[in-house]
């Protein structure tokens, strides 16, 4: 099974990026997690939506090939991070996003506004959030990188269990 994972943070030592890097390492060999890059997407503009933009094509192609999408994104001023909202805007009119199973990873238990906004946006875009697979892990101020997350028994167990549930629900929905 192939999954696409996107981080909504462009920060070099991002906890959200570290969380999806850790998920990739924790995944069993039967599950390939492709980490997508949204940092080079142009700002969304409907005027150029149908242009052949390599970074946009790569995002859409990776999503089309994935059985599910994992999103880890920070809260900025009670909202969705600009890079993540921009990436989602590029996917609004395409055929790749609707009905795609989605797992949400929240790296900050105190951040609920962005998570709720993300759920609203994804639902509006007809994404299929697998609620039982969503996880919250306390990474904020933890100083943990991907290796540290993998080595942390409690946090890696939460991530692994969420991934397991996500994959089981995807498999169960395949006729
Ligand atoms: C501009 C800015 C605004 C932020 N606003 C909030 C906020 O409203 N609520 C919150 O819980 N954290 C807020 N934070 C903290 C970030 O969510 C937190 O640092 C998070 O770890 C960033 O994600 P990253 O580690 O993946 O880069 C903000 C951080 C920045 C830089």
From TrEMBL:
State one Pfam family annotation.
FMN_red
- GO MF term (any one): oxidoreductase activity
Q: Does the keyword Flavoprotein apply?
A: yes
Q: Which UniProt keywords apply?
A: Flavoprotein, FMN
GO CC terms for this protein?
Answer: cytosol
Q: Which cofactor does it need?
A: FMN
Taxonomic lineage: Bacteria, Pseudomonadati, Pseudomonadota, Gammaproteobacteria, Oceanospirillales
This protein is called what? Answer: NADPH-dependent FMN reductase
The NADPH-dependent FMN reductase-like domain covers which part of the protein? Answer: 1-125
